[in-house]
Amino acid sequence: MPQADLTLELQHALAKRILVLDGAMGTTIRGYGLNEAEARGERYADNEKDLLNNGDILSITRPDVIGDIHKRFYEAGSDICETNTFSATGIAQSEFFVEDPREKGGRKDPEFFQKILENNFLNDLAWEMNVESSRLCRKWADDVGTDTGRKRYVAGAIGPLTVSLTNSPDANDSGFRVVTFDQVLAAYKHQIRGLIEGGCDILMVETIFDSLNAKAAVVAIQEVFDEDRNHLPVIISAAVGLGGETMISAQKVEALWNAFAHVKPLAIGLNCSLGPDLMRPHLEELSACAATCISCYPNAGLPNPLAPTGFDLEPKHMYDYMADFAKAGLLNLAGGCCGNTPEHVAAIAKAVANFAPRKIPVIR
């Protein structure tokens, strides 16, 4: 479907009802009880570093698990599921496959990351992760959509990376950065092309803790669109601290909107970092200033290692909070981040079903 038609289709859907996003991939993966050997598979059995915490690798080594998770979220009521690609760049994957120079007295710097960008293994891995993750999510979107008679969508997840462009890690050299803007841009362009190749409908720059990293992702999206003539709707979502600021770049939510309004995103919103109770005032501020749809997928409360999901809030609690958000007219898209299982998403879907979506304000 041409981009203009897909964007219009989604805009019409968002004007009619609150659409439902998915929940936490990492939380749900843990429910399968995989061990290190299962995460590695035969393909990466001899890798020197542990891969169990590399959730993105499971799209290659355990597509049955990732596919089942997408299926469960769609069946729980998700209209849009994200691909399993939060860390599917060569930069992020180098954490799992390349020796850390700091372990031998060195440091990570632009020279190190230039070698990462030129590493054929990491480039091929990132491409495969994004293409296969997008195809996997696409399959279940189409299958569940056909079975239920309600179209489902795939959002290509573009995460924040493991490095910062805003801050220096060296207290004695405030101008030092471990990586350059152009290097981050190149990594994101490679990821974005893989996501599009795999068949996603939307590109989602999410869990923004560093606005400059997100700027690089958005520039990458625009350059890929211009160079490949293949446009998709874009969603932007930030992770904020207690004061409503992106946690490394300290950009408040109104400033965030002003920084990304020119992209004309399908939606902008908040996710992760906070539970719904602590996120509400910042969501209200963003809703008041953003001339586009608002998305919100908070954590299931605060971390709690004694809770089954690792977070405090149960599905019934997420139901209450998200129903309150919807009743207040704050939502166009609703879902859950860390701690939110398919059961949580089912509760969220029920919570928002009977409320009208937020009306987009006319900002003068």
Using the CA coordinates, give the radius of gyration. 19 Å
Task: Give the domain tally.
Answer: 1
- CA distance, first residue to last residue: 33 Å
The CATH topology turns out to be TIM Barrel
Q: For this structure, what is the CATH class?
A: Alpha Beta
Spans with pLDDT under 50 lasting ≥5 residues?
none
Assign the CATH superfamily.
Homocysteine-binding-like domain
Beta percentage is: 5-15%
Q: What is the number of E strands?
A: 8
| Sheet with most strands | 8 strands, parallel
Could you explain the architecture of this structure?
By secondary structure, this protein is of the alpha/beta class. The chain has a single domain (3-352), classed as Homocysteine-binding-like domain (TIM Barrel), CATH 3.20.20. 47% of the residues lie in helices and 10% in strands. It contains 14 helices and eight strands. Strands 1-8-7-6-5-4-3-2 form an eight-stranded parallel sheet. α5 runs parallel beside α8 (120-148) and α6 (90-97) packs across α8. The model has no long low-confidence stretch (mean pLDDT 95).
Which SSEs are present, and which pair or pack?
Blueprint: H1 3-16, E1 19-20, H2 25-30, H3 36-40, H4 58-61, H5 63-76, E2 80-82, H6 90-97, H7 110-117, H8 120-148, E3 153-158, H9 181-198, E4 202-208, H10 211-228, E5 234-238, H11 253-260, E6 267-271, H12 276-289, E7 293-297, H13 315-327, E8 333-334, H14 342-352
Helix pairs in contact: 5-8, 5-14, 6-8, 8-9, 9-10, 13-14
Could you give a short description of this structure?
The chain contains 14 helices and eight strands.
